[in-house]
């Protein structure tokens, strides 16, 4: 099955700086790569996703890049704010009968005011 | 709009006891999922259902069963709980099967002693 690795496990940045989280995946058939944000005591919430037919997608301060050849994708958060502090999960999936998302192990981001 | 609700919020259970975690969604989503979240392991899929009346096994199905009698409800049952099933359990749903955003419930924290 798919194996998704995520780094770093923890990340601290000063408010206003950028944060980058990286993930690699093993199954070349994976074609959907979402990123979820999980705040304390809550369930994960989708913040951005990318499909294998594009290399980059941006939504305001958040961007995701995908390198299918190298099988890695990254989340970029610019101009970080304290409310960006949370645990972020990457995931990978391929278009099969089951929408099985394989998650990374998470990155705890702390934005220091 | 409630989205996805889970019950109970938390539970302490003696080993060997039977337990059913409840999950209800009001979005009329076809697909539903159960994940467990453990520190350092991210979220792992237990069981899923692509549509009412069908279920399938995920990455870690042993010790768990599910049913999908209707569109809205997707209960998860532990027939005889063991301490290794101590975890936070998340229910999720999505409109379709492949590559669609999954919406997560608030989670159930289960402790098996």
List keywords for this structure.
heterodimer; A: 113 residues; mainly beta; 0% helix; B: 113 residues; 7-stranded mixed β-sheet; 4-stranded antiparallel β-sheet
Task: Explain what this protein looks like in three dimensions.
The complex is a heterodimer of chains A (113) and B (113). With 113 residues, chain A is mainly β. Chain A contains no helices and eleven strands. In chain A, strands 2, 4, 5, 9, 10 and 11 form a six-stranded mixed β-sheet that branches. In chain A, a hairpin with a 6-residue loop joins strand 4 and strand 5. Chain A is globular, with a radius of gyration of 14 Å. The termini of chain A are far apart. Chain B contains no helices and eleven strands. Chain B is globular. In chain B, the strands form two sheets. In chain B, strands 2, 4, 5, 6, 9, 10 and 11 form a seven-stranded mixed β-sheet that branches. A four-stranded antiparallel β-sheet of chain B has the order 1-3-8-7, with no helix packed on it. In chain B, a hairpin with a 6-residue loop joins strand 5 and strand 6. Chain B has 113 residues and is mainly beta. Classes of the chains: A mainly beta (113), B mainly beta (113). At the A-B interface, strand 4, strand 5 and strand 10 of A face strand 5, strand 9 and strand 10 of B.
